[in-house]
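This part of the workshop introduces the protein records we will be handling. A learned vocabulary of local backbone shapes supplies the integers on the structure line. Getting from the letters to the tokens is the skill we practise here. As an example, a complete record with its sequence and its structure tokens follows.
=====
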Amino acid sequence: MADVPPSSGDLDRANYATIWDAVARAVPDRVAVHADGADVTYTAFEELAARLAATFVAHGLGPDSTVAIFMYNRVEYLTTLYAAYKIGAIPVNINFRYHGAELAELLEMSRPSALVYPSSLAAAVVDAAERVPLPGLVLVVPDTAHDDADQAAAAPPAPGVPFASALDAAPLPSHPRGPDQRIFMFTGGTTGRPKAVVWTHGNLFDSQLFSIYGSLPVDVPTSLDDVTRVAAREDLPRTVCLPLPPMMHATALFNVMNAMVLGGTVVFLPTARFDPRAAVRAVEEHGVTRLVVAGNAIVGPLVDALEAGAGDISCLNTVLSSGMVWSDDLKARLIAHAPGATLIDIIGSSEGGPFAYGVVRGPDDLPCRPRLARGAVVLAPDLTPVDEVGETGMLAYRGAMPLGYHDDPARTAETYPVIDGVRHVMPGDWVRVLGDGYVEMLGRGSGVVNTGGEKVFPGEVEKVLLALPGVLDAVVLGLPDPRWGEVVTAVVVTAPGAPLTPEQVQDEVGRRLAGYKKPRRLYLVDELARSPSGKVDMHRLRRRITEVEVPALVDPVAAPDAAERTP
């Protein structure tokens, strides 16, 4: 795998719309997207995006307008993204699991000029519309393939106009866009309120060079012509990308965007619900070469299906995951079914990176140890380098990175410090130095729970718990889990004689918040032993409950609902 430098050199037109337009001209008849049993060529895909872009312009959208995408993986998601890029607008990624209040909060923050969503999510949009005004342009994608037909039939009328009506406009002529156009990547961060990490197209493209070209026998492009020549080469392995996590997350979105830079084909599963057997069939049927996963949460069910004889995935040459726990045992089980594949476990974040890569080409590469990426360093709390074996420090990166957080200069200054005249990104991940560039991940320094790739802010769940009758105090934290990385765990103090069941906790949290925020383990204690300042000694509390001093009420809390948790 090539060691790609952290800069694209003279490629000063690194804008994804400009690149995709050029790729469409270079490989017009190649399949860009396969979805819902149909193939969409690059020519057809570019025309769809150009028509939607023209509709956006007709409704007053332009550079720096925001376009909210409240949708799971499907061709309309990618079309909306492309159309926004064509006019210099900023797409806003919204978690399709959000309820109305959560959706309303993000709409209020991002103030979109357009909203695109599938009819199966109409209930959340109707609820949000009672809280905040909807944008002037709302487009509804018919959701005939929704998993729950009864739920779809019972859904309220969907606000907006059909998505197809926005494709009646004459295509907007293609024209180059510059590298300074922005991309928002909303993330839960450490405050509970979503924050938009602001990338530019140019910086994002630079940061993705390893993911795009690292596995190919090519020189790194230094011009738009070089990019399109690589995409058009017939002698290179064809990239067929299947993203299993939702594109509302950076890992899936960026890898899909990268596949299209290479003139590859993107394959989408037909429904939001993750079906591992359907994923295996799609890999085999379409000759998928690049599979995007989300650590154990996806790979676990996938290897279970493979070991039950679901199909053949030997066509894979790359499997990528980022920001999620991916255990060595599941890597070993997966590589047994895809012996020609390279597994790439990326240590990264929405705030920037990559910081480190764990690369497995076969059983001899296990146990997998992440190695620092070029441009990554380990720093002590005083921001000096840490290089002694066995010492701990925080990951930092000095390559291409976002501009910072949207409208949050204080948080930006904290996460993107300038050290000795060089800007770094430091989201707060702690590691132990192992020597020769290798590190051991120790976890994020904040209290955010990362469960199945989703970030859960404890205070948001605690607020719901404290509203339950009989609940006197509550703390939410993450406990280790072999599949999800962490599971949301509630430690609750109740009034004497007040009953509280796991079902009550899950029902109430699920009524107010997205399903992945439900506590999966519940502990009842007499007190939380808060300090005079009101703080809980979290280290002591974790030790107390994990040493089974306090019994857990785990049924059914400890059994995650895979349909809720994976796309």
Q: What stands out?
A: Residues 449-565 form a domain with the GMP Synthetase; Chain A, domain 3 fold (CATH 3.30.300.30). The chain is about 30% helix and 25% strand. The radius of gyration is 23 Å. The CA atoms of residues 242 and 415 lie 32 Å apart.
